[in-house]
Amino acid sequence: MALGLLPGVRVLDVGERISAPYCARILANLGADVIKVETPDGDESRRMGPFPEDAPHPEKSGLFLALNLNKRGVTLDLESRPDADRFLELARTADIIVENQPAGWLDARGLGYDALRQTNPEVIVASITPFGESGPYAGFKANDLTLYHMSGQAHGVLGPVDDPESDPPIRAGGHQAEFLAGMAAATASLMALYRKRATGVGCRLVVSSFEAMVTQIISGLANCAYGQPAPSREKDRTAEPAVGGMVRAVGGLLPCTDGYVAISPREEAQWQRWLEVMGNPDWGTDKRFATREARHSNYDELWRLVGQWTQERSKHDVARMGQERRVACFPVNTVEDLLGNDHLREREFFVQVDHPEAGALRYPGVAYRLANTPLPLDSRPAPLLGQHNHEMFRE
Amino acid sequence: MRCSVSKLPLQGLRVLDFSWIIAGPTAGRFLAMMGAEVIKVGSARRPDPSSAGPAFQVYNQSKRYAALNISRPEGVAIAKRLVAISDVVVENFAVGVFERLGLSYEVLRQERPDVVFVSSSGTGHTGPDKDFVAYGSLLQHYTGWNSVSGYTGGEPVPGGLWADPWVGMELAMLAVAALNNRIETGRGQHVDFSMAEALSGSIPEAILDYQMNGRLPQPQGNRDAHHAPYGAYRCKGADRWVAIAITDDDEWRSLCRVMGRADLAGDPTLAHAEGRLKRQDELDEAVTTWTKDLEDYEAMRLLQEAGVPAGPSLDVCRVFHDPHLRETGFFSPLETSDGETHDLPSLGWRFDDGTEADVRAAPTLGQSNDYVYGELLGMSRKDITRLEQEQVIY
Question: What would the CATH number be for the domain defined by B230-234+240-314?
Answer without folding.
Answer: 3.30.1540.10
